Amino acid sequence: MSVSASHGIGDVEDARVIERRLSDMIAGEDRILRIPSSVDEETALERVENWKGSLASYGLKISTGPVVAFRATKWLRQNAGGDTIRCCG
Predict the structure, then answer these.
(1) Torsion (CA) 36, 38, 39, 44 in degrees, nearest 10
(2) CA of 16: how far to CAs of 22, 38, 42, 85, 86, in Å?
(3) What's the confidence (pLDDT) of residue 89?
């Protein structure tokens, strides 16, 4: 799988590209798709994967902050269409 990343349309021609097997990007029993877009992000994921305990066991707490329900309301629709992507079931 090729993963490309840029800062926006201004540098899309110079996007970073990382090649990885899809199986390396799916984590855990819940099959979470992780898409690192840089070597630094890959290193961080590897370090977290090697932790022996939970965040709480390291004295850490985490919060996602306030939830933004819908940032892209123009893409929401009442009924599925032919181009709808279905998730999780």
Answers:
(1) -50
(2) 18, 8, 14, 26, 28
(3) 47
